[in-house]
Amino acid sequence: MRKLxxxxxxxxxxxxxxxxxxxxxxxxxxxxxxxDVFITLLSLLGSFTTYQIIFASFQRLITAIFLASLFGxxxxxxxxxxxxxxxxxxxxxxxxxxxxVASVIVVILILxxxxxxxxxxxxxxxxxxxxxxxxxxxxxxxxxLLEALTLERRRMVYEIRNIYLPLxxxxxxxxxxxxxxxxxxxxxxxxxxxxxxxxxxxxLYLGRVNIQYEQVFAWTIIIIFIVSIxxxxxxHLNKNLQK
Length: 243
Hints:
The model has no long low-confidence stretch (mean pLDDT 83). The longest helix has 39 residues. The protein has 2 domains: 29 residues; 211 residues, MetI-like fold (Orthogonal Bundle), CATH 1.10.3720.10. With 243 residues, it is an all-alpha fold.
């Protein structure tokens, strides 16, 4: 109850600041009022096209997260176990984490075109998060467990599946949760720049160029709602798996 009350209070405070700034600016074209955005949001939610756009962007996100998780977790486990592998990937991961997102988007768009580049960009931004989370998970395993492991020689596949992966899971879960929000923001930015057809990024772009900022605000609310649902689903699934 207390958590719900505090959350509701925060939302009401944000709406108050929003309304205050809208009145101060006094131009609904540049900074729409909450009422206008809410009406536009209801209109979007009542349109079948909206769900086509959401599904298209969501499909790209899920594909990118799946590929980033597959390679990030696998290579992160190996890097945590073998320092030589960690040293090999260190410059690559550091570069991906420090490069400006906009620069990566432009370069990948030039190299791979409009459709394929969205998956590649999202993968490149998510891979370092999941890789590093997994590697840190392995490095934080109790040393006494690893010493006991060395006394029982087993195949690496068995050790990864039954020891390293389960013990690193809390770190992997954190990395996955972080990648959902970041991945969606990067994907929408890439869609915005690439002008991808049937995408949330293009919907935001059209709202901007047509000076329909209530559309931009409404789509932003939809993005927040989608990410919240995904994170809730991941947390709920994790709790069920731990029972």
